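Customer escalation, tier 2.

The customer says the design service returned an amino acid string that "doesn't look like it belongs to this structure." They asked us to rerun it and document both sides in this ticket. The original structure tokens are below, unchanged.
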């Protein structure tokens, strides 16, 4: 066995979808509730777990509507991020994030009780914020690799 290949349990896979909403060089981030047991106070792109029987796009649109109160249109192909979770209740799980660039299509931002705040932030501002581990890498991959 290769020492550089992390161990994971293939029966324990978490799949989530995230939407990167960009408008005039600013990105929508939501701040996890201070009451949240996982990632409290951390800024993140809207999204969440894939539900059984839902397509990726339907799941993404549902999650963004639930978390931010807006409808979106997908504007490009997604990127896929993969990692093995190494701590907490999902220790050993394979975790795949499918991240779509999207545009706000309709509605006014209204956050769910999963979040305490929202904002539209520049890449420069996001670099200094407390975000989920992959947030900054996602922006670079989607918007600076052109």
């Amino acid at each position: 066995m290769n020492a550089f290949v992390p161990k994971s349990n293939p029966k324990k896979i978490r799949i989530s979808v995230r939407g990167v909403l960009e408008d005039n060089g600013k990105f929508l981030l939501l701040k996890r509730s201070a009451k949240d047991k996982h990632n409290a106070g951390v800024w993140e792109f809207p999204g969440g777990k894939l539900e059984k029987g839902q397509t990726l796009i339907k799941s993404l649109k549902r999650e963004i509507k639930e978390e931010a109160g807006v409808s979106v249109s997908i504007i490009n192909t997604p990127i896929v991020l993969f990692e093995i979770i190494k701590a907490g209740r999902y220790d050993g799980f394979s975790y795949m994030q499918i991240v779509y660039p999207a545009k706000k299509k309709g509605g006014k931002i209204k956050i769910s009780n999963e979040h305490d705040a929202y904002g539209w932030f520049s890449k420069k501002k996001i670099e200094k914020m407390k975000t989920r581990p992959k947030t900054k890498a996602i922006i670079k991959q989607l918007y600076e690799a052109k």
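Tier 2 assessment: The sequence is consistent with the input. The mean pLDDT is 87. The chain is about 20% helix and 40% strand. Sent an explanation to the customer and offered a walkthrough call.
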